């Protein structure tokens, strides 16, 4: 502890020596580095929390639950992967506080659905050619188990254009394909276009994520086309999300008044129904249809928006827009009829997009919706036979800081700057929330309604779109072999572990291991018997 403190001070001293200019006003005083205010017994804090007993009991209860937890080495019949796009650790913290505060509860101690999972790890998200991941290369890592170039989906680093993409040896297949190969059902649920980078990682093979409806090259199939006709896409049982425009010709106007984007004149929604003619298949486009859909369908395609689905805060209780939790529930109910189990991919896709706009409140609300969907999966499945993995593709340059008191409004003020101007607790390193200084003075956000969902939180560097961050993201797991998803892992290890647990794919699996264990124990038995025989009779 003292060593660490000493090391910290040394680092600070070195930094000051390295940058002498402007450091003259630097005061090495702990009271300034860590300003403290003494709060009166805050009514927002439960009185028992002031007693040591409360914390000791809470810690002992957690310890007891952890040491009594037995390793689950069952075969995972089902795997559900939840992907929070851009779900940084900081976003999880801020969203849990916001979620609790919304209900008038103790926000800091609130738990989102995945926080109750028994195992967690960190995922290193860099891609083949990028220090900071995009959603395409990262999807290839966490679904197909191979790191690739920024912007590439379902291909290795050798596919860089249409010509190299025609070489199928450059394609890599996702755990959805591995699962289909052993007779499992599969599904994708997302709040983005179903052709967007993360869900496309389940079924598409493109060097360029922008080929959603038009590759600019007739030889290479676009992502929407691959969802209908690709080796993996054609077998997906449940497809729910947005992106209708990518399936319709640019000459048509869809049911909600948006025009299609396809330039090949094809109506892929109609074609999808035609390809499923021999099975029970349904196409739906609104929430009411989803909530009354017959789960005995073999195939379900739901496209609820022309573009991405709306931000939750913009469509609360909308009759046309289902929630992520509602879509997840229908998907699980359809897939769980599979005797061989299923692989389901669920994406909270707009946590990321709200962050890109520095729209902190919307990002937190999307995260809470994501948590609600995980809650549905927990309720509908058993830890005994279903592995649930919750992770993210990459982080965001989003932070929560200052020294606000316990119970402080998470969207509120974090403290006062040296310039005497208040600053918000939430902020970004870059993005459109940047505000020009006025007469050399930092912009004062305290004049705004900080609870406004459209408020762009402050950013240091002006950019039209806030950037991802290269830091690690969390992995949360429960169910068979969930304990293997602990420690600091390369992102592409995740599908290998899910495949191990569910006995799919070409790599090691729990089933192969247990049969070789049975085999080796049989060999051992035979060896013992022959020794006994030899000693007696020879
Ligand atoms: C549709 O796309 C084609 C091919 O790019 C183009 O020639 C045509 O003008 C477009 N039509 C509309 C209505 O945008
Ligand atoms: Zn993004």
TrEMBL record:
InterPro entries, per the entry: Alkaline_phosphatase, Alkaline_phosphatase_core_sf
Cellular-component GO terms for this entry: plasma membrane; side of membrane
Binding-site residues for Zn(2+), renumbered to this chain: 85, 352, 356, 393-394, 468
Keyword terms, alphabetized: Cell membrane, Glycoprotein, GPI-anchor, Hydrolase, Lipoprotein, Magnesium, Membrane, Metal-binding, Signal, Zinc
Enzyme Commission designation: 3.1.3.1
Primary location class: membrane
Residues at which Mg(2+) binds: 85, 196, 198, 347
Membrane topology: Lipid-anchor; GPI-anchor
One GO MF term: metal ion binding
Residues at the catalytic site: 135
Stretch forming the signal peptide: 1-18
Broad enzyme group: hydrolase
Localization (cell): Cell membrane
UniProt cofactor(s): Zn(2+); Mg(2+)
Cofactor binding note: Binds 2 Zn(2+) ions.
Cited Pfam families: Alk_phosphatase
UniProt-listed PANTHER family: ALKALINE PHOSPHATASE, ALKALINE PHOSPHATASE-RELATED
Similarity annotation: Belongs to the alkaline phosphatase family.
Protein name: alkaline phosphatase
Protein source organism: Popillia japonica
């Amino acid at each position: 502890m003292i060593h660490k403190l000493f090391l910290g001070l040394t680092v600070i001293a070195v930094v000051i020596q390295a940058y002498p200019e402007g450091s003259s006003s630097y005061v090495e005083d702990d009271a300034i580095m860590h300003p403290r205010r003494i709060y009166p017994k805050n009514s927002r804090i439960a009185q028992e929390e002031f007693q040591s007993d409360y914390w000791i009991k809470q810690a002992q209860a957690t310890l007891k639950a952890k040491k009594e937890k037995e390793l689950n080495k069952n075969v995972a019949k089902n795997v559900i992967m939840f992907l929070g796009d851009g779900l940084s650790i900081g976003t999880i913290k801020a969203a849990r506080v916001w979620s609790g505060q919304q209900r008038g509860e103790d926000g800091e101690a609130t738990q989102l659905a995945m926080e109750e999972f028994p195992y967690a790890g960190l995922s290193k998200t860099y891609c083949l050619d990028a220090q900071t991941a995009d959603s395409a290369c990262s999807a290839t890592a966490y679904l197909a188990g191979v790191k690739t170039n920024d912007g590439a989906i379902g291909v290795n680093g050798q596919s860089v254009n249409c010509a190299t993409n025609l070489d199928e040896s450059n394609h890599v297949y996702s755990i959805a394909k591995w699962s289909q190969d052993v007779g499992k059902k599969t599904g994708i649920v997302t709040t983005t276009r179903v052709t967007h980078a993360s869900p496309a990682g389940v079924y598409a093979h493109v060097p360029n994520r922008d080929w959603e409806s038009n590759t600019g090259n007739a030889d290479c199939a676009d992502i929407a086309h691959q969802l209908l006709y690709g080796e993996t896409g054609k077998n997906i049982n449940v497809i729910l999300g947005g992106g209708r425009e990518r399936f319709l010709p640019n000459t048509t106007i869809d049911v909600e008044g948006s025009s299609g984007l396809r330039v090949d004149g094809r109506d892929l929604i109609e074609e999808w129904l035609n390809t499923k003619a021999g099975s029970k298949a349904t196409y739906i486009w609104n929430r009411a249809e989803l909530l009354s859909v017959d789960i005995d369908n073999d195939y379900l395609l739901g496209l609820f928006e022309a573009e991405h689905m709306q931000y939750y805060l913009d469509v609360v209780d909308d009759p046309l827009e289902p929630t992520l939790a509602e879509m997840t529930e229908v998907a699980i109910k359809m897939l769980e009829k599979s005797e061989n189990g299923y692989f389901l991919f669920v994406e909270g896709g707009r946590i990321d997009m709200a962050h890109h706009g520095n729209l902190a409140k919307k990002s937190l609300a999307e995260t809470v919706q994501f948590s609600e969907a995980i809650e549905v999966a927990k309720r509908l499945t058993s830890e005994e036979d279903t592995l649930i993995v919750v992770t993210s593709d990459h982080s965001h340059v989003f932070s929560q800081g200052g020294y606000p008191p316990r119970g402080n409004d998470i969207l509120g003020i974090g403290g006062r700057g040296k310039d005497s101007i208040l600053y918000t607790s939430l902020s970004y390193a870059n993005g459109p929330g940047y505000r020009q200084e006025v007469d050399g003075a930092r912009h004062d956000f305290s004049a705004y309604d900080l609870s406004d969902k459209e408020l762009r939180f402050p950013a240091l560097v002006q950019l039209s779109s806030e950037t991802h961050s290269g830091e690690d993201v969390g992995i949360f797991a429960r169910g068979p072999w969930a304990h293997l998803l602990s420690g600091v892992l390369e992102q592409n290890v995740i599908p290998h572990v899910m495949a191990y647990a569910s006995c799919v794919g070409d790599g090691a699996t729990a089933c192969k291991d247990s049969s070789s264990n049975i085999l080796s124990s049989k060999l051992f038995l035979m060896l013992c018997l022959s020794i006994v025989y030899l000693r007696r009779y020879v």
